[in-house]
Amino acid sequence: MSDLVQWSGNLLYASFIMYLVATFLFGGSIRQKKDGEKQDVNRWGKLGITVTVIGFIAQLGYFFTRWAAAGHAPVSNLFEFITFFSMMLVGAFIIIYFMYRLAVLGVFALPVALIIIAYASMFPRDISPLIPALQSQWLHIHVTTVAAGEGILAISFIAGLIYLVKTLDHSKRSKQTIWLEVIMYSLVAVIGFVAVTMAFTMSGYEAKFDYVNKEGQAAQETFNLPAIVGPNEGELLTPGQFEPLVEMPAFINSKKLNTVIWSLGAGALLYGLIRLLARKRVGALVQPLVKNVNTDLMDEVSYRSVLIGFPVFTLGGLIFAMIWAQIAWTRFWGWDPKEVWALITWLFYAAFLHLRLSKGWHGEKSAWLAVIGFVIIMFNLIAVNLVIAGLHSYA
Amino acid sequence: MGKVKCECGHVNPHGTVLCESCGRALTEEAQKEKLHDMRYEGSARRSQTYNKSIVDKVWNFFSSVKVGIWLIVLTLVASSLGTIFPQKLFIPNNVSPETYYEETYGTAGKIYYTLGFYDLYNSIWFIALIAAIGVSLVICSLDRVIPLYRALKNQRVARHGTFMKKQRLFASKQGAIQPEELDKIKEGLKSKRYRIREEDGSLLAEKGRFSRWGPYVNHIGLIIFLIGAMLRSVQGMYIDELLWIREGETLEIPGTKGEYYLKNEKFTIENYDKEKDPEVFNAALERTGSIVKNYQTDAVLYKDENQDLPGAKPKLVKVKEEEIRVNEPMKFDNFALYQDSFSKDEMKAMELALTNKATKEEAGRVNIDLFNPKDTYDLGKGYKVEVLGYYPDYDGVGENGEPKTKSPVPNNPAFLFKMISPEHPDGEISFTAIRQTLEPVGETEYKMEFRGIETRNISALTVRKDLTLWILGIGGAIFMIGVVQGAYWNHRRLWIRQIDGEIYVAAHTNKNWHGLKREINPLIENTAVPIPEDQQA
Ligand code: HEM
Q1: What tens digit of pLDDT does each residue of A9-18 get?
Q2: Is there an atom of ligand 1 within 6 Å of B218 CB?
Q3: What percent of chain A has pLDDT over 70?
Q4: What GO terms in the biological process aspect are recorded for it (chain A) (predicted)?
Q5: What pLDDT is stored for residue A319 in this prediction?
Q6: Pocket test for ligand 1, best of B41, B47, B60, B65 (most atoms within 8 A of CB)
Q7: Least confident stretch, A297-306, B14-23, B203-212
Q8: Scanning A94, A336, B268, B371, which has its CA 20 to 30 A from the CA of A362?
Q9: Is B89 in Cβ contact with A347 (below 8 Å)?
Q10: How much is the pLDDT for B218?
């Protein structure tokens, strides 16, 4: 039994390594290419996609062995769901790759998938049994379709990002370049989060607090990072650990906020370091990677991904969701925050399609919309789970 | 209003921009355009043609996609505001929203409450926004669908030269096409599933025209869905009741007008068990404590045979016996009973002993049903207990000296007893609550001593009837068909003509121009037909 779990973990690890290798292979492939859309993919590109597919199969292996071990599809907690999302992202990349044969997509899509897997691994990884509401066939029908839809929509973000990196004028400071840097910084901040969490977990840092929770009752909380912000009326119980600088009001979850502060801080440090070493914006730093990109084609890839992903997302995120909600919670719609954010995502992409079709928002505007869409998806995936607790909040 | 007759002889409706048949530009503006706007094939749309009366203005407002997008974006932003703090529905139900938001979230919470955002999704303005989207969907679809249908149906194979020149993909070249060459191109197009029409040497290849109806199909689906959602407020279409039912109880199911009764045989909560359940869960169980495995009501459904006889006592006939669990409702006759919530260990009966305080000897025990206490309990041998007062939810003594009860539910039962014994045939008065005995009219020799309590669980079941679900289902299905139709197929056309010793070629797609180029370029490569160039790139 636990052998399976072990195997499952190893397969995930293997897929991580493959994606990493494939990123470099794709990187190598675009170096030697000239402009044009009809070019055959070179050896590096072929190798890159082969390794990606093997990695994907390994990740599928992780998924199904864990399913076998748990007796239910591993999409029932944050670790499992986010890893599954990364798998769908890679899957979507593979599909789009075979439609357009663009190695450059891999150079951006795979690192994003890697960051997401690393992020997911920071959450508790043990296999949890299902609470009654989750004991249904609809768990995997609904969750897998949502993640698939979001994965495909994420490719639209990747293509949009490439479009922006290529077309923005990085030599000048402008609203556009600043926002692009904000995106780059956010990606770096996730790496910061992973680094900080791993470092303090390995050192076994623990600081226990007595505090008063939002119901006005006494409670305890253990911080695994030094508390920059501490809980409401908190009292540090573990001697010798860092005393919080600021105390938070009761309705704010200080532990999570503290983690966010640490991540942003570590991210800023990393980002600053990159800027210092490269002496240019991160956008400008990666620009050489995209110098052969056909922007018009990238625009189409971005739009196409939305066209493919939107129906899938609608099916999983709204229709299957409603069917299940009717069965499990007696009503198909209840304005739970997670539901609302699925609706917002859906409305946003509907607006995207209309803007494109009728107002002719192509190119840069469309690329920015693709970026915003991804931000909304990430918000729903992470912030709504962690911050706005509702029926859906995992663990 | 005058119809417009084109030079080619086709009569177009008033307001047409490009002749439905040959594609000639009919307005001055269209003649000047560098590229034709092909979105609605240049057909006459009401909103682009009339702008006089109020009706026209309202029509034009709602048929504008710009307005539609604004409505979508406003709904999106409004929806997000509702998730900043929990909605009224999700706050604890024993607190008043008026104070809750301010107390929990400070000033921001107060503002949130004052603006009415605590119940945003039921507010009139939010519902009005959704309704406006509905109206907009109907009008914008009507405005476009019929003209588009006419234009796509009437199109001739041989389009006018100017029409072809103003397509995004276009090229022309001196020369002539050999019939064999044309045949080869046609073969290629056929293998790509194009439908081919020919008219004296001109060719029109077309595929995926049905995808143009995708948006209209999906909008119809949305409209049906919205209508279904509206119907829920119609009497009888929708029932939403909560049934709290104790173990052992048989109650009428609310909303069924006395037709159905339910008995709760037993309510169970089961947790995962490290010993019995798969050991892969052990780590999680250790980390989080206990995790619930099952909520279950063992229920029996009865039908009242006497329902139609006024005044008759219910005659219950068993219909079926089922275990109701989360995700497994009991269904009957358009109704469904869902496991919703529960209350554990409600007090059911209390056991007390009549005891001599000095000798600690028991004279006998009474077992009081807290829902139906008797007036007297005879213990024999001259011992008797009379219940003078029963306070199921005792809440202290009121100003008039009388004990008070908060509710009829036995949360904290208390009794005023008269204890009769051979020594005190007139009785002694004792006031007994769970951990408390008072002697309000002087010291007593006997007392009622608490011995034990019997409890039972209460199950809360949602009673739901929703006759709109099938409408919502149909709406959803139509929507899905429509989006897939519009998103996974494209409408592609290729025109080839020979005009005055020149070969004209033009192509159009409603989306994915690269896909179109990649499909047709290899087919005309190495023929006399030039490869159409992207005039927008
Ligand atoms: C939540 C609401 C809506 C959804 C989900 C929705 C969905 C869609 C979709 C998926 C398309 C196809 C887009 C494409 O293929 O690129 C479309 C097209 C369109 N929608 Fe909507 N729509 C909504 C509301 C509206 C509203 C309110 C209007 C009114 C102005 C509108 C007008 C249109 C028009 C004119 C088209 C293009 C039709 C064409 O030219 O082929 N939509 N819609």
Answers
A1: 899 999 999 9
A2: yes
A3: 94
A4: cytochrome complex assembly
A5: 95
A6: B65
A7: B14-23
A8: A94
A9: no
A10: 95
CA atoms within 13 A on the CB side of B406: 9
CB A368, CB B90: distance < 8 Å: no
CB contact under 8 A, B279 and A249: no
pLDDT of A240 higher than 70: yes
- In chain A, residues with a C-beta closer than 8 Å to the C-beta of B271 are none
Which pLDDT score is estimated for A394?
A: 43
Unique residue bearing structure tokens 């269904």: B331
Nearest to A311 among B272, B293, B483 (CB): B483
3-class state of residue A353 by DSSP: helix
Across the interface, whether the CB atoms of A131 and B280 are under 8 A apart is answered: no
Q: Is residue A178 part of a domain?
A: no
Give pLDDT, residue B220: 94
Ligand 1 centroid from CA A304, angstroms = 16
C-alpha dihedral (A7, A9, A13, A18), degrees to nearest 10: 50
pLDDT, mean of residues A332-349: 92
B215 in contact with ligand 1, CB cutoff 6 A? yes
Q: Which amino acid is at B352?
A: L
Residue-wise pLDDT tens digits, B374-424: 889 988 888 899 998 898 888 888 788 788 888 888 888 888 898 998 888
From CA B357, how far away is CA B444, in angstroms rounded?
Answer: 8
pLDDT over 90 (residue A117): yes
Strands in A213-285 per DSSP E: 218-223, 229-230, 235-236, 246-247
Chain B contact present for A63, CB below 8 A: no
Query: pLDDT band at A162, cuts 50/70/90?
Result: very high
Residue A158 has pLDDT above 90, yes or no: yes
Substitution target in A99, A214, A312, A335 with the highest count of B β-carbons within 10 Å is: A335
Q: What is the pLDDT of residues B168-213, one digit of tens each?
A: 999 888 888 888 888 888 888 999 999 999 887 788 999 999 999 9
Euclidean distance between CA atoms B521 and B504, whole angstroms: 15
Instruction: Determine contact: B225 vs chain A, CB below 8 A.
Output: no
Let me know whether B370 and B423 are in one domain. yes
Domain of B129? Answer: 45-152
CB of B221 closer than 6 angstroms to any ligand 1 atom: no
> Do B496 and B161 meet the contact criterion of CB atoms below 8 Å apart?
no
Whether the CB of A269 is below 8 Å from some CB of chain B: the reply is no
Is the CB of B319 inside 8 Å of chain A's CB atoms?
no
| Candidate from A304, A336, A351 with C-beta closest to B69 | A351
- Ligand 1 pocket test: pick from B58, B133, B219 the residue with the most ligand atoms within 8 Å of its Cβ: B219
Q: Atom 13, ligand 1: which residue's CA is nearest?
A: A353
**Total domains, chain B:** 5
Provide the residue range defining the domain that includes A103: 2-172+190-203+258-262+291-386
Q: Please tell me whether residues B276 and B371 are part of one structural domain.
A: no
Residue B113 lies in a domain: yes
Interface check B340 vs A, CB under 8 A: yes
Does B140 sit in the ligand 1 pocket, CB within 6 Å? yes
Claim to verify: residue B374 and residue B441 sit in the same structural domain: yes
Using pLDDT thresholds of 50, 70 and 90, give the confidence band for residue B527: confident
B119/chain A closest Cα distance in angstroms: 10
Beta-carbon contacts of B115 under 8 Å, excluding residues fewer than 6 positions away, are none
DSSP characters for A122-150? TS--SPPPPPGGG-SHHHHHHHHHHHHHH
Same domain, B287 and B231: no
Interface probe with B: pick from A6, A318, A330, A394, most Cβ of B within 10 Å: A330
Which residue in B326, B462, B518 is closest to A132 by CB distance?
Answer: B326
Q: Which residues contact B478 (CB under 8 A, 6 or more apart)?
A: B217, B218, B220, B221, B224
B6 found inside a domain: no
Q: Is residue B8 part of a domain?
A: no
Shared domain check, B285 and B192 = no
Both B251 and B190 in one domain: the answer is: no
- Contact (Cβ atoms closer than 8 angstroms) between residue B485 and residue B213: yes
Residue-level pLDDT at B362: 87
Which of the pair, B2 or A344, is modelled with greater confidence?
A344
In a domain, B27, yes or no: no
User: Count of domains in chain A?
Assistant: 1
**Residue whose C-alpha is closest to residue A292's, from A138, A139, A157, A104:** A104
